[in-house]
Each structure stands twice: as C-alpha cells, then as structure tokens.
Amino acid sequence: VPRKHRFIHTSGHPHINDTFAKKISSVARDLELCNDNRLKLRVSVNKIHKVCNMGNSACENEGQDPECGVSERTNRTCDEVPVGQESVSRSHLEGSACELKIATKSAAGAQAQLPPDPEPGRTEVKSLDRPMAFEDALTKTTFGKFNCFLIFVCGMNLAAVLLETLGISFVNPVAQCDLELTNSDKGVLSAIAFVGMIISSHLWGFLADTMGRRAVIMPSLFATFITTVLSSLTNNFWVFAILRFLTGFFISGSSATVYAYLGEFHNIKTRSRAIMAASTIFGLGGMLMPAVAWLVMNNTWAFDIPFLGITYKPWRLFLVVCGLPDIFCALSLFMLPESPKFVLSQGRQTDTIKILQGIYGINTGQERETLKISSIIEEYESLASRKHNEQNMKGSFRVLKSMYNQTAPLFMGEHLRKTMIACTLQFGIFVSSNGMYMFFPDILNRVATHMEKSGGNYSATICDAVINTKVDIKEILNSSDSSSCDLKLDISAFEHSLVLEVLYAVGFVIIGITINAVGKLAILVFVLMGCGLCAIATLFTTIPLLSIYLYVILLMCGLAVTVVNAATVDLFPTHLRAMSVCISLMMGRLGSVFGSNLVAAMLEINCEATFLISGISLILCGVLSFFIPNVQVRPHGRVREERLSISSYGRQ
Question: Parallel, antiparallel, or unpaired for β 132-133 and 303-305?
Fold first, then answer.
C-alpha cells in the first residue's frame, strides 16, 4: 500500500497491528452475513477505496502475519474496482453497502482503542475524508439567511392554501344571489375544493416522492391561480363548483409537499421549529383573509361585463386577490433548489453536495467550496426504494405500479399503525377546524342580525340565533325589490374573523417556541381537549360575546394540524415522507368535506348536534395523541436519523 494512503504511522506502537488484526478479522466474519444479499446497490468508488485503505493501512505486515488481512476476496475486490466506475454490481463487491458500513465503523472503533503515544510527536495522523451522514452534512450548512427565506416562502405557500380553500366562506353569504345558493349549495361549495384535494393527494404524493418536491409545488401553484381567476368570471353554480374543484385539485400539490420540502432542509433539532415558524407566517398570512375581505367585499360597487354575461362585484375581485400568493410562491421557488435529501435519495451525490454547499455559502457568506464534503451516506430505505422503482419503471402500467409500491409500505408492518393514527387525527381535527369554519362568517352575521332585531335585549345561544335568522334565497330572488340582493356581511363577522387569525398566529408562535421544550404530545393534548370542551360549552352560553369567543377557541384546534404534520415527517423515512403527509392530509380533507356538509345539513335542523359532534371528536383525538410512536421524544443533544447499517438491513 503506498505510504500516502497510510493514515497512521505505526513505528511508535509495535502492538497496533494486533489490535487492527482482531478488528479486521471481525469485519471479515461480519461480511459473510452480507453475501446472500441479492440487492444491487449503486456505491461510490471513492467510498470503496477509502474502506480498503482503512483496512490495509494498519496491515503493513500482511505477508508475515496471516491474521492481519481481511481476506483475499475482499482485498482483490477493492483493488479490482475500475477507476471511474460509478455502478458496482454484486459480482464486483458482494454486499457492498454492508461492507462499507461495517468496515467504516470497525476501523474507526479500532483507531479509537489505540493507546496514547508514549512519546508525543511520534504518531502522525492525517485527515481522512470519510462518508458523512446527511444529518451531519446538513448541520454543517448552519442556519441562516437561506433558511429564513425558505421558511417565509413555505409559510406563504401555506397561507395560499388557506386563502384558496377557506376564502369561499366569506364569498358564500355575499354571492348567494348571483349564484342562487341554497344552504346545501353553500355546503357543496365549502367542500368541493377539499374533494379536489382528496382525489389528487395520492397523485401529488407519488409525484413528489419520485419527481421531486420543488418540481411538484411550482406547476401546481401556477395552475391553481389560473383556475381561481376563471372561477371569478362565472355566473353558473355548477361551472363555479367545477372550477373550485380544480382549484383544490391543483393546490393539493403544494399543501402537503411543502412540509416535506421544508423539513428536509433542516436537521432533526431545527426541523419542528422551522415547520412551526412557517406555520406562524401562515397564520400571519391568514390575517389577510378577513382584512382583505373587509376592504374588498364590504363595498357596493359593480359593473357589467356583457360578453361574459356577468356583473363584476367585490366578491369576484376577492377571489382573485386570494390567488395572488400562488404566483408569489411559484416565482420565489425559482430562487430555491430542490430538496437535498430528495436529490440524495435519487443517488445524485454530486448534486446533493452542490446544494448543501450553496446553502452554506448563503448562510455564512463564505465561498461555497469551503464546505468540504466528499460523500454522503444514504438511508438504506432510500437505496432499496430506488432499486425497486427502477425495476418497476421497466414494465407495463409502470406509473400505477410505482404508485402502489410508493403507498403500500405505509399500510404494512411497522408503518401501518403510524399511518392509521396520523390519518385519524387529521380527519377528526379537520372536521372541526375547517368544517365549522366554513360557516363561521355566516353564523356571526346571523348572530349580529339577531342582536339587531332583538333591540339589544339579547339572551340566547348561538344556535337560537341561527334558527331565528333563516334565509330563504327563493324569496329574495322573487322579491320585487332588487336591493334585497345587495347582501353584505356585518362588520362583526370581519372583526371576529380577524381576532381568530391573530390568535392563530400567536398560537403558532407559542408552539414554535415551546415545541422542543414541552414536546408534541403535551401541545396536542392541550389544544385538542381544550378546544373540544369549548365546543360543548358553546351550547350552554347565552352571553353573545362569550359564546362567540368560545366558538373562536373551538376553531383554534387547527393549530394541531401542523404539530401532527411535524410528527408525521419525523415518523417516516425520506422516500415515504411526502406520501405519508399527503395521505394523512387527504384524510383530513375528507374530514373537511364531512364537516362542511354536516354543518350545512344540520345547522338549521339540529344546530346543537353540530357543536356536540365537533367537541366529542376533538376530545377523542386528544386521547389518541398518546398513541403516536415516539411523540414524547425531544431533540436534546445530537440526534441522528437511522442510516445504512447491518441492523437496518436485517430488519427488511
């Protein structure tokens, strides 16, 4: 072995060879466990030669000491690897992934056991570029300007999702004359975007895990804006409903994928906090909804567009304004790279290192090349998934088959329980947070109307006010007084909606600050059970302002959605994260559809049951939170994700 490859000068330690001989012999025995493996892995030649050098460097007397060498097969294999060859099959290196991990760990362990140099200065140790774990490489990029900009863009992305899906709650009461909406029609429009999100969640999750996070988010945002603008230019209920369905279909591509995209730029110590910070911006962006609705919709201007056959009113402009964050986020993503963890999972080591170096350069202001990373260790799950996907792409029905292979692991083995818990939690939370919110401005408007009619002598529950202020759209349309169609929301509807969004933002800030200290479990139990109890208390409160704010606290259960998403990201390996979040949020959107139509059907028939169902479901979700695996684990100290190892290999 050339002396330049020997990383320890052994002249001062005559017994070093025996120490290494025992370690290397143990390595040889362990390597035999990998020989039955039939999985072909793409392995960097640099890694292989470094492992060989580590094993051979201590074996200077290999010819005299038969115990020193690993084995003739192993040494020949390392020496015979052609330089520059990127793909090494089993015939070149059997169980290469296993050998790489064992040899690296064993050689490092042997080095750690060396006795101190009896004469300082006699031992010469040269730096060795070893494969680096992704978490360690990501930590070296530090946290700085790049991360702040990324968090802001992802937060605005989440705000765009909120505006596109929940903005219709302000449109329904005002557009009921133009679109001739009954209470059931309002339920359909409230839920139709979520139906689109449900249908497309699986597709977007598959595309995000196979094509890339950024490659999915950008086109979905552009398409969402187009459908939003078109929906503002129609007078037909069914055309409007179809366009809102398409809006939900496309916005789903960014709503769940953005969590995986953001999380994979941060290590385990900063990931939850980054997601919570983005959620805070999402909450601040949510404040724009009632504020913009107040400024735009609380007006009476209108003008005709003859060739479209519509009268352009403030509610149509409001829809367009709700779509503006889509364009902002899509354009901002041109300045951001693909997720480095996704790029690594595709076997693109060089591109991954370039992305990490770029982040390092932006965060530190130094030259990107000053971050030295020779190679990065891939997760075993990513290697196996890529191998499986490459095989599936060669056959017929490859897309459907690959989608199945991307989804099936979530409902098998150790992942089944985690998937079911995440899906159930999201369903229960969305029933209340979105289902009840879609009628929030309408209910507040009815409470204000009832208070005005009662002349200030108001002593009734929210449900009493709803029943006493029913609106018959047919009577309004048949009225000879055209001014009866100029419906406006009471100012209190905007004010209390703004208060709700402010409380959301404050809640996200508090969660972001405390999540690492108190853990996800404590936050979930406090939020879900507290909101559930407030929902039940709303039924018995006859003080107007108190009942409204109990309703507001009920809707704050949506704070738990991002905590569940953060837990989901931590529970699954890289190649399943986007799909797992998409599937769980798909069930959440199903809860939104169920909740919206439940409220539409029961609000004027059995209003009390609506609040009771909401409260009970939230309390049950709080109990279910105790069963989330590892939910109480908090990232104290240096925590690493599972990487390629013999133990992870054997579990498969």
Answer: unpaired
Residue from 588, 542, 515 nearest 279 by CA: 515
Residue owning tokens 């990065």: 376
Residue type, 510: I
According to DSSP, residue 2 is labeled -
DSSP symbols for 266-331: S-TTTHHHHHHHHHHHHHHHHHHHHHHHHHHHS----EEETTTTEEE-HHHHHHHHHHHHHHHHHH
Q: Token digits for 217? A: 């988010």
Instruction: Give the mean pLDDT of 408-420.
Output: 87
The bridge status of strand 303-305 relative to strand 376-377 is unpaired
Rounded to an integer, what distance in angstroms lies between the CA atom of residue 415 and that of residue 423?
12
C-alpha span between 458 and 489 (Å, rounded): 20
DSSP string, 203-268: HHHHHHHHT-HHHHHHHHHHHHHHHHHHHTT---HHHHHHHHHHHHHHHHHHHTHHHHHHHTTS-T
pLDDT confidence tier of residue 428, bands split at 50, 70 and 90: very high
Residues 6+ apart with CB under 8 A from 105: none
**Does residue 119 have a pLDDT over 70?**
no
Q: What angle do CA 110, 651, 86 make, to 5 degrees?
A: 65
CA distance 537 to 649: 53
Task: Supply the pTM of this predicted model.
Answer: 0.66
Arithmetic mean of pLDDT over the chain: 75
Lowest mean pLDDT among 17-26, 314-323, 327-336, 461-470: 17-26
Residue 377: phi and psi, rounded to 5, are -80, 130
Q: Evaluate whether 101 touches 113 at the Cβ level (below 8 Å).
A: no
310-312 and 303-305 beta bridge pairing: antiparallel
**If you search the block for the tokens 């084995």, which residue do you land on?**
71
For residue range 573-613, what is the model confidence (pLDDT) as tens digits? 877 887 888 788 888 888 988 998 898 888 878 888 999 99
* Of 34-48, 402-416, 545-559, 563-577, the least confident: 34-48
d(Cα 585, Cα 592) in Å, to the nearest integer?
A: 10
pLDDT for 613 equals 92
pLDDT digit string, tens, across residues 251-295 = 988 887 898 899 889 888 888 788 878 887 877 777 888 888 888
Instruction: Please give the single-letter amino acid code of residue 651.
Output: R
Terminal CA-CA length for the chain: 37
Per-residue pLDDT band for 473 (boundaries 50, 70, 90) equals low
At residue 630, what are phi and psi to the nearest 5 degrees? 60, 25
3 forms beta bridges with none
Is 540 exposed, middle or buried (CB count within 10 Å of its CB: 0-12, 13-18, 19+)? exposed
Query: 10 Å Cβ neighbour count for 195?
Result: 20
**Tally of CB atoms within 10 A around 89:** 13
Q: Which domains does the chain have, with CATH numbers?
A: 3-130 (no CATH), 138-372+380-475+485-627 (1.20.1250.20)
pLDDT at 65 over 60: no
Structure tokens at 595: 């909740």
Model confidence at 6: pLDDT above 90: no
Give 182-212 as a DSSP string. Answer: -HHHHHHHHHHHHHHHHHHHHHHHHHHHHT-
Q: Of 354, 433, 424, 347, which Cα lies nearest the Cα of 390?
A: 347
Strands 132-133, 376-377: pairing is parallel
3-state secondary structure of 125: strand
| AA letter at 554 | L
Amino acid type, 228 = T
